[in-house]
Amino acid sequence: MQMEMTAHIIGVAGKSDQLKAEIQELVEKTVQETGCLEFKVFQDTDDINHFVLWEIFENQEALTRHLQKEYTKKYFNCGLLEETKVTKHHQIC
Question: Within 13 Å and on the Cβ side, how many CA atoms surround 23?
Fold first, then answer.
């Protein structure tokens, strides 16, 4: 079963450019992973510290592999994240 998620990422105030660079590096590497079907990030136009990530992985195993990658761990430990809220979902139409 595909793993479909949306993550709302709130960055540390005043550090949006640094966080955007970390996110861009993460995206560049993640989209090359076997099992990554979608991985797109958007920046809120009204709140530059708010990013939205749409991600779809082929299955739970692909997501687990992604979370174990060194660059994924580096992103989560970059010190630029205030809050991340992930919603799992599936398309209905």
Answer: 25
The one-letter amino acid code at 82 reads E
pLDDT-based confidence at 91, cuts 50/70/90?
confident
Q: How far is CA 80 from CA 26, 32, 49, 75, in A?
A: 14, 24, 10, 9
pLDDT in tens, 38-68: 999 999 999 999 999 999 999 999 999 999 9
Q: Is the pTM of this model over 0.85?
A: yes
Contact 86, 6 (CB under 8 A): yes
Please, are residues 55 and 62 in contact by the beta-carbon 8 Å criterion? no
Half-sphere exposure of residue 11, counting CA atoms within 13 Å on the CB side? 23
How many residues are present in the chain? 93
Whose CA is closest to 26, among 73, 59, 60? 73
Backbone angles phi, psi at 37, to 5 degrees: -100, -30
